[in-house]
Protein 1
Amino acid sequence: MTATVQTPAHAAVAPSTRAPSTRALLTCAIASAPLWGAVSLAQAATREGFDLTRHPLSTLSNGSLGWLQITNFMVAGALTIAGATGLRRALSGTPGGTWAPRLIRVNGLGMIAAGAFVMDPADGFPTGTPAGMPEALTWHSYGHMAAGTIAFTALIAACYVLGRHFSRAGNRGHAIASRVAGTALLIGNGWSMTGGKGGSLTLAVGALTAMLWISVVAARHRRDA
C-alpha cells in the first residue's frame, strides 16, 4: 500500500501568486500623499514662472518638464488604489469600513485620470504663456477638471466617512481630525472654483491636508495589521 502524503493548504500557493499583504498595501497608502506633495512642491519652488498663489499644481503637467507631474499623478493614484485595498481589509466589519475604502479608490482613479488629461497652460505658465486664462479650454482640460472634481469629492466624502468611523469607535480626536481634513479640502476647492484670491494656494493646502490624513489613517492601521 502506498502512503499518501498530504500537503498543507498554504504550501499549495506559490509565493509569486500570493496576494500582497495588508501591511504592504497600507504602506502604499502611507506613501501616496507625501510622494505627491513632495514632488509637486519641489517643482512649484523651482520651475521658472510658477506661482502657487496663481497657478494650480496641476498646471505643472505643462512644459518640457510636464512629464514629471503627469507621472506624479499616475504613481500617486496607483498607490492610492492599492492602499484602498489595504484599508478595506483593515476596516472590514467596522462602521464606514465599506465606503471609506471605496471612496479612496475612486480618488485614486481620479488622480490617474487627472494625470492623463492635462490642464491647459494659463496665466503666464509655462514661461511665454499669455497672462490670464485661455479664451477657450481644450477637451483635455475639461477632462482634467472633471477628473479633479470626482477625485476631490470622493476624498472629501472619505474623510467624513472616516470621521463617523472614528466617532463610533470612541476616538474623538481622530474623528475631529477626519472632519477637519475633509472640510479643509471642501473650503479650499470651493474657494478656488469661485475664483477667490490665492485660490490655487488654498486648494493645494486643502488637498494636501486631506491626502496626508489618509496616509495617517493608513499608518495607524498598519501598526495594528
Protein 2
Amino acid sequence: MPHVLVFDSGIGGTSVLSHLKCAMPMVQYTYVMDNELLPYGLQSQETIKSRLTALLNWIERSTKQVDVIVIACNTASTYALETARQHTNIPIVGVVPAIKPAAETTLKKHIGLLATPATSKNTYTANLISTFASECQVDIYHSTTLVNIAEHYYWHNEMQAELLQTELQRLNICNELDRLVLGCTHFPIIKNHLQNYFSHKVELVDSGAAIARRVQHLLKNKLDQSGNVEARLVHWYATASDKIEQAAGVKSLKLVS
C-alpha cells in the first residue's frame, strides 16, 4: 500500500490531507505536525530548514517506507523545499501560494494574497508574482492571528467570531479584487467563515486539489498495483503533543538534526 507523509507546523496541512484522502483513499497516510514551533510564519528560514532536515533524519531512522512527502506548509515550502530535496531520494511535493491559477482566472486583473509574514515577504513568493501575475495588481496581506483562529476552530469546533472579525477588519482587504489566494494551509480550514465575511464577490483560491493531483501522478504505478483497499487510519505525530487537547492517538516526536 502506498504511503504518503504530510508535514506542517500545525493542523493546517489537514486541509491538504483531506484532498489527498478524497483522491486516494487507498493510500496510507502519516501526518506530522511541528507544533512546538507553531506558527512557522514567525520562524527564520534557517530554523525551518533545520526542522525539515530533522524530519528527513527521523524518517530514515524510523525505517518508514515513505513513497511521497508532502510539505503542506507554504512557508516551509517557499523557504526550504530545495534544501529538503537535497537530503533525500523520496519525492517531495511542496505547497506554494496559488498565484498562477488566481492570475489566470481573474476577470478584474486584481488579486490578493493572504499569507503569513514569512510567506508573503519572501523571495520565492515575489518570483511567483512576477512570473505569473505581472499583468495583475497584487495586494498582499499577512496574518498569523488567522493561523491561531484556525487551530482553535479545528481542535474545539468553535469559531472565535469576534477575533476573526477584528483581524479581518485590520487586514482591510480591498473590495475591488476578485481572487484572494489563501497562501497558508491553515486558512482553508476556516474558508467558509472567511467567505461569509466578504460582501463582494471574491473567489478564495488554494492549492489543495492541485497538490492531490501531483501526488496522484507520482504514485500512479503504485496506485495501479494497490487495488481498491481503503486505508482509513491516519498515523498522527506531534512535536508538542501535550499542547494538543482532545488529541487521542497523537504520538510524540522529537525533531533532532
